[in-house]
Backbone:
């Protein structure tokens, strides 16, 4: 028996599912303003506000993003954003105050600020996503846009000290996918310290594998989803991941992740 407490916010989050098919209805300016303002109210490390989001309205740009992501539905999203970590704006502010951004003392391009800005962008995106669901909209987070980071940087004209993080597609849902299974809490929440042995860590894996294998994704209704452990094993040796390495692209954008 579940002891979960329910209210509108909790239920919105518990019912969250990715929506990949949208009704072809534009969203109002009021909705856009609401979602963007909510995103701005997310937590920000040291209040540096080191993220930005680019709203994509040009059909040609949407089509190109769909090509980069390998997902045609991206081009059909009524509302589409790419969130970026953004130290370019703060570098410009610092330069206006006399800071020499080309010096070794400049730290906004280091690994700490890179990761913190990335965190801030994700927090803002999640706030926007949650607000969208609460308004009866559907969303899908687009990690697939990172399939070709250089192409994405060029398409969005991203300047020095910026880097794409994730995309977010929003619209009125035109599908009703089943809720995807979630891992047992015992495999993800620990008390005081990380489990000291893998037997304890993986105690719930077999049942979770079976539950995941019974789930049918709307993207392929002809076959059940692979067990979770099979998905992990496949991704653990995916050679394609090396082509998405962050360091070379981050260096191109002026970041020094070795610092």
Residues:
């Amino acid at each position: 028996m579940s002891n979960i407490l329910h209210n509108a916010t909790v239920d919105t989050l518990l019912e969250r599912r990715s929506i990949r098919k949208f009704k072809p209805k534009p969203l109002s300016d009021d909705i856009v303003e609401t979602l963007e303002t909510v995103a701005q109210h997310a937590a920000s490390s040291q209040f540096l506000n080191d993220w930005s989001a680019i709203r994509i309205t040009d059909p040609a740009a949407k089509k190109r993003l769909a090509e980069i992501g390998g997902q045609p539905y991206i081009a059909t999203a009524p509302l589409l954003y790419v969130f970026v970590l953004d130290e370019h704006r703060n570098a410009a502010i610092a330069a206006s105050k006399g800071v020499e951004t080309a010096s070794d003392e400049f730290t906004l391009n280091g690994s700490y600020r890179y990761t913190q800005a990335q965190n801030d962008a994700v927090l803002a995106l999640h706030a926007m996503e949650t607000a969208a669901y609460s308004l009866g909209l559907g969303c899908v987070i687009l990690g697939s846009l990172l399939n070709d980071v250089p192409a994405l940087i060029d398409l969005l004209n991203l300047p020095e000290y910026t880097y794409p993080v994730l995309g977010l597609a929003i619209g009125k849902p035109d599908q009703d996918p089943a809720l995807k299974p979630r891992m047992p809490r015992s495999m993800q929440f620990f008390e005081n310290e990380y489990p000291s042995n893998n037997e304890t860590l993986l105690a719930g894996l077999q049942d979770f594998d079976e539950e995941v294998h019974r789930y049918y994704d709307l993207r392929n209704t002809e076959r059940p989803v692979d067990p979770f452990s099979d998905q992990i094993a496949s991704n653990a040796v995916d050679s394609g991941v090396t082509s998405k390495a962050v360091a070379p692209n981050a260096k191109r954008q002026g970041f020094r992740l070795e610092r």
